[in-house]
Design brief:
CATH superfamily: Aldolase class I
Radius of gyration: 22 Å
CATH class: Alpha Beta
CATH topology: TIM Barrel
Number of helices: 11
Helix content: 25-40%
Order of helices and strands: HEEEHEHEEEHEHEHHEHEHHEH
CATH architecture: Alpha-Beta Barrel
Largest sheet: 10 strands, mixed
Distance between the termini: 36 Å
């Protein structure tokens, strides 16, 4: 179809096949027609539900993430039965230990909070995919994602601890480890450690393009992981950089990443699209705490229709190219999709 006739002045002959012969609204006339030609389909089996698990005896609500809580291990069976019953195939665990230290030892403690949570979940829902966030920031007293020396995170010294954490998680029974630290070389170190300890079948989902984002604030409250000094800009990506994401993903894939993540999701849909276009590995995106809090907070004030806004946001992430989405809306969205 030529474009000449599309912009023709009134009264000027239009190219064949343009308006009024072609009326794009015809296929929008009913929900049945709209559903029939829908390009992007949102389904619960695209979701991964993040869970903050802590060592207290009761669940504790997260003020900056209304509707979300830190979950007691004793509450996990009820929660994961609901997750599985909604058709959500996976959860990702973030640990909130009672004690922290400067080397993040809770991350690789065989009796750590995540390790115990994995065993509990697998006893109840063995078919549910359990992913472990593989990082140190939730376990360090200083809140950074690695060993701190002379006021900075020591990249190479951190790799051994990340590898130990991944092995500990694999031994606890996780289906997949997910390094989120953004240290150079972490995927190779983790892959080597898993292979050497008999866990060669455990895949790695790398947070390959993780940005130093303003949208992480509520998460840091939830995980009690706010840095005690400085920030994470020396290891997380500059929000202004898009091409660099391709280099990051390429490096992680070359080191053995089986799947990759872009984080956050909505502010970086262009990056999701670029990664999807350039790589054949599965691509996920994390709709982070700030994205969730904006929609839920606005809805609580009557400024947005929560259901419509959440589903539109999730659809945009999948439309951009994400194969799966980590989202705090997973439970609600799955119920909404079942109702429609």
């Amino acid at each position: 179809m030529g474009r000449k006739g599309i912009l023709a002045e009134p009264g000027v002959e239009r190219a064949a096949g343009t308006f009024p012969a072609v009326r794009l609204r015809r296929l929008r006339a009913s929900e049945g027609l709209r559903s029939l030609i829908r390009e992007t389909r949102l389904t619960p089996d695209r979701f991964v539900y993040p869970i903050f698990v802590h060592e207290l005896e009761e669940d504790v609500g997260i003020e900056s993430m209304p509707g979300q809580s830190r979950i007691a291990i004793s509450s996990l069976p009820r929660l994961v039965r609901r997750v599985h019953g909604l058709g959500i195939p996976a959860v990702i665990l973030f640990g909130v230990p009672l004690m922290k230290d400067d080397v993040g030892s809770g991350a690789y403690d065989p009796h750590g909070v995540v390790q115990r949570a994995v065993a509990t979940i697998k006893d109840v829902e063995p078919d549910l995919v359990v992913i472990a966030d593989t990082c140190l920031d939730e376990y360090t007293s200083h809140g950074h994602c690695g060993l701190v020396r002379d006021g900075d995170v020591d990249n190479d010294a951190t790799l051994d601890l990340l590898a130990r954490a991944a092995v500990s998680q694999a031994e606890a029974g996780v289906d997949l480890v997910a390094p989120s630290d953004m240290m150079d070389g972490r995927v190779a170190a983790i892959r080597r450690a898993l292979d050497e300890t008999g866990h060669s079948s455990v895949p790695i989902m790398s947070y390959a393009a993780k940005y130093a984002s303003a949208f992480y604030g509520p998460f840091r409250e939830a995980a009690a992981s706010r840095p005690q000094f400085g920030d994470r800009r020396s290891y997380q990506m500059d929000p202004a950089n898009g091409r660099e994401a391709i280099r990051e993903v390429a490096q992680d894939v070359a080191e053995g990443a089986d799947a990759v993540l872009v984080k956050p999701a909505t502010p970086y849909l262009d990056v999701v699209r670029d990664v999807r276009t350039n790589f054949e590995v599965p691509v996920g995106a994390y709709q982070v705490s700030g994205e969730y809090a904006m929609i839920r907070g606005a809805a609580m004030r009557g400024w947005l229709d929560e259901r419509a806004a959440a589903l539109e946001s999730l659809t945009s992430i999948v439309r951009a190219g994400a194969d799966f989405v980590l989202t705090y809306f997973a439970l609600d969205a799955s119920e909404w999709l079942t109702e429609t």
